[in-house]
Amino acid sequence: AQSVAQPEDQVNVAEGNPLTVKCTYSVSGNPYLFWYVQYPNRGLQFLLKYITGDNLVKGSYGFEAEFNKSQTSFHLKKPSALVSDSALYFCAVRPRSGSARQLTFGSGTQLTVLP
Amino acid sequence: SAVISQKPSRDICQRGTSLTIQCQVDSQVTMMFWYRQQPGQSLTLIATANQGSEATYESGFVIDKFPISRPNLTFSTLTVSNMSPEDSSIYLCSVERTGGSGANVLTFGAGSRLTVL
């Protein structure tokens, strides 16, 4: 069975500092990997995905993530955090041969950017 | 990408009652997905709604508790039946983008926050 782990429930970072939100996964074969963000009282919004190709993926709002196959990780990063980045972030994985039904979400990491 | 409208956005319900959540998409889609997000938890897929056939329910979810309708390719409803406080959650409708750079990505509605007293 596939799984996604976000080891940190909460990440605090000062505005202007780099941020990292961690994600590791377990899935058979090569996965599709995703990051979504949820702002208060909103649905989830897509940030970025890894399908194939370059291990460094760039997404919306200046976020990027690096696919590391050997470490089975897909950490979300941003060079300089903004207060407006404060939100709940979800990592998600699905097997390459699977369907959207097989998308598994991590438990979420609450990011707080302090002014 | 598709635009999804969900209503109600929030409601407070009494124990034992039922509530129907509506999901409207601005384009035709084959599959629509219903998720539950319990307080402080991640998203769990309830069922997949297919037009012209019965919904496919995930383990732990049954049709009697969460009946789903899918009358056409742009609309679906999820009913939460005989509610208890444990049903207090955010319920989210979702569709999968197809084609181009958006392929394999889910688009979500804003969610329906239900509180059961």
Question: In terms of topology, how is this protein built?
Answer:
The complex is a heterodimer of chains A (115) and B (117).
Chain A: E1 3-5, E2 10-14, E3 19-21, E4 24-26, E5 31-38, E6 44-50, E7 56-58, E8 64-68, E9 73-78, E10 87-95, E11 104-105, E12 109-114
Parallel strand pairs in A: 2-12
Antiparallel strand pairs in A: 1-4, 3-9, 5-6, 5-10, 7-8, 8-9, 10-11, 10-12
Chain B: E1 4-7, E2 10-13, E3 19-25, E4 31-37, E5 43-50, E6 56-57, E7 68-72, E8 75-80, E9 89-96, E10 106-108, E11 112-116
Parallel strand pairs in B: 2-11
Antiparallel strand pairs in B: 1-3, 3-8, 4-5, 4-9, 5-6, 7-8, 9-10, 9-11
Verbal overview:
- The complex is a heterodimer of chains A (115) and B (117).
- Chain A is mostly beta strands.
- In chain A, 0% of the residues lie in helices and 52% in strands.
- Chain A has strands at residues 3-5, 10-14, 19-21, 24-26, 31-38, 44-50, 56-58, 64-68, 73-78, 87-95, 104-105, 109-114.
- In chain A, strands 2, 5, 6, 10, 11 and 12 form a six-stranded mixed β-sheet that branches.
- In chain A, a hairpin with an 8-residue loop joins strand 10 (87-95) and strand 11.
- The model of chain A has no long low-confidence stretch (mean pLDDT 93).
- Chain B has 117 residues and is mainly β.
- Chain B contains no helices and eleven strands.
- In chain B, strand 7 (68-72) and strand 8 form a beta hairpin.
- Chain B starts with a strand and ends with a strand.
- The mean pLDDT of chain B is 93.
* Proportion of beta-strand residues of chain A: over 45%
> Approximately how much helix is present in the residues of chain A?
under 10%
Whole-angstrom Rg of chain A:
13 Å
Shape of chain A: globular
Number of strands of chain A: 12
Can you give keywords for this protein?
heterodimer, A: 115 residues, mainly beta, six-stranded mixed beta sheet, four-stranded antiparallel beta sheet, B: 117 residues, seven-stranded mixed beta sheet, 11 strands, 0% helix, globular
